[in-house]
Fold this protein.
Amino acid sequence: MMLTKQIDQTYRGWRPSPGRWLVAATLVLLLASAMRLIALQTVPPGLAQDEVLDADIAQFIRGGEHALFFSHGYGHEPLYHYLAAPFAPLLGDNLLAMRLPSVYLGLALVALTMRWARRDFGATAALVAGLGLAAGWWPVIFSRIGIRPILEPVLLVLAMWHWPLRATRITRRGMGSAALAGLWLGLSIYAYTAARVVLLIPLLLLIIFAMQALWLRRGDRQSEQQAARVRIAYAAIVLSVGIFVALPLFFTLRANPDLQQRLEQLEGPLTALQAGDAGPVLRMTAATLGVFSFTGDPRWTYGLPNRPLFDPLTALLFYGGLLVALWRWRQPHYLLLPIWLAVALLPSALSPDAPSTVRLIGALPVVYLLPGIAVQAVAGRLEKRTEKKSARSLPGALAALILLPALLTAYRTVQNGFSHWPADLETRTRYQSVLLDMGRHWLAAGDARPPVVADVFFEPIDAAGLRRSLGVDPVARWVQSGAGVAGAVVWPRGEPSALYVPEFAPLDAGLMTLAGADPTLLYRSDGSPSFAVYQITPPLLGGINDGLAFASTGCSPSLAYYGVTELLIGEENMEFATWWRAVDWLPDDLAVFVHLLDATGKIVAQHDGLDAAATTLQMGDVILQRHVLPLPATLLPGNYTLQVGMYRRTDGLRLALPDGRDVLTLAHCEVGPIGSAALGCRLTDR
C-alpha cells in the first residue's frame, strides 16, 4: 500500500515540490533564453524591412505621434510599438533595441504558459509545453524578429490565466478575474491583425455552456446546473469586457477604412466565397490544418519553406493531446483548448498563401500544450498498468516522454533554423544581408568618408536599416543601379569615395564611360549575395554657378547644373549624362527630366528620373545622372531641341532657375532630309 501510495503521489499529475518546480522552470527559461539570444545579430541574417518599419513607428511615438491604429506599413496595431518605444533611448537606435522587445515577450510567453498550464493541466503538461515553446523554431523565430505578432499569444495566455473556467460559484473575486481576462483578450486585438477573431473564443464557449445548461435542466443535477450557470456568467463577463476594450479600435477602423490596406490584400479567399466560389477557402483551410505534420508555410521569411511545424513524434503527441482534450470536453478548461485552436486557425484558413505561421501566432500556447496533454495522459496510463515491482522504471519512462520530443524539437531548430535557413541565398536576400555585410566591411576598413551604396531600388527604410544594423550612422549616399535603371553616381562632398555595389545591382559600364572614370576594384566579398567595393574619383568641377541652380518656389536652390557629357546617339537610343552639385536641401520626390522636342514643342523622346536618392544627398555632393532616351522608329526631318529640367513627383511642379526659366537647353539637334544621317546634335553647354 505504501508503494502504491508513493506511485500515486509521484506520477499521477507529477506534483513536484516548489523547489523542484522552480529548478525545472528555471532550466526551461535558460534554454529559452539561449535559443533567443545566441547569435541574435546574425539569425536572422539581417534586418527585414518590417523590423525597420516597426522601429520607425516606435520612433514616431517617441516624437509625439500617437494613434489607436497607425497607417504606416499598410496599417499597424499600436500596442507592441508602445512597448518597444523605450528601448532605443536606453540601448541606442540599433538592432539590439529592435529585437529585444520580442525576446522578452517570447520569454514571457514561455513562463506564462508554464504557469497557466501547471495550474490547469498539471506539471507534466506544463513542462512539455515550456520545453516546446523554449526550443521550437516557430516560437523562437518570432521571438528573434523585432515585429509585433509575438505580443498576441502573450496577452491570450494572460486572458486564460485569469479566466475562472473551473469556478463553481460566482464571487466578487471571480467576477474581477473574469473582467481581467476580458481586458487581456480585448488588448490582444491591439497587438496584431490576426487577433481580431479572438472574441469568438468566449462567444463559442458561452454558446456551448448555454446549451449544456439547457440539457442539464432535463435532469435533476442541481450542482452541475449551478456550475453551468457560473460558467455562462463568467464567459459573458469575459466577452463583454473584451468587446468594450476593443470598441475604440473597431470604431477607428470603421471611421477610417483606408487605414488597413493590408487587410484588403488578404481578402482573396473570402471575396471568392462571397461570389459563390468556396474552392479557395477550402484549399487554404486544408493547407492550414496540415501545418502540424503535412504542409508548411510556403514563404522563406520565417523559416525553411514547406516544413511542418512538428517532427513525426511530436506531431503524433499533438494529435493525441487534441483527442484527449476533445474526449474531456465536459471539463471547461479542456474544452477551451480545441475552441482556442480552431479560432486561431481562422486567420490563416481565410487568407491566401496558407498556411501562414505569422497569422497562426495566436495558437502558439495551445499548440505546444497539446503534446504535453498527451504525455501526461500516456504517463497516467503507464502508471495504472505498471506493477509494483517495475515502479522504479516509471521515472525513466516519464523522462523519456518529456525529453525525447524536446530533443527532437531542439535538433530541428538548430539544424534548420540556425544553420540552413540563415545561410540560404533566398533568406539572405529577403533580409538584405548584403547591406549588413557592406556596412560591416565599411566599419572594418575604418574609412571615415561616407560610403556610396548601390541598390536596385532605394527606399528610405533601407538607409534606416543599415544605420540600425551597424549601430552608427555611416551617412551613406545611395544610388540605384542594375537592370532597367539608367543609373547614377555620387561623390560625397565632391571627393573620392568608396562605392559599394551588390552583385544584383551591377554598375552599368556605359555610366562609367560617360563619367570618364575608371573605377578601381578594392574588394570583392565571398558571401552570397556578394558585393564589390570600388574607388571612384570625381572630375574637376568649378565653383557653383548660381545662375544654373534650380529651386522650388520660395525655397533655397536644390541642385546646380554643371554640364552634360558627350551624346551617344544610336539607332534606338540617345544616351548621355548630366552633372549636378547639391546646393542645399533636396525634396525627397525630386526628379530630373530630359525632353527631345520637335520644332512645334512636342515631346518626341524623354527620360525621367533621379537615381541618386535625394534624401541622402548633402550640400556639396556631386552627382552624375545617366539618361537613356528611346528614340522613335522614325524621326521626321527638321530641327529638335534637347532640354533638361527638374520637378517634384508628388505634384508635378517644376523647379525654376533664378531668371524664371524651368528648363535648360542642352543641345540643338537636326534630322536631315530622308536618306541623310538620322540625327545630329550640337551641345549648347558643356
Notes: Residues 9-427 form one domain. DSSP finds 23 helices and 16 strands in the chain. The longest helix spans residues 222-255.
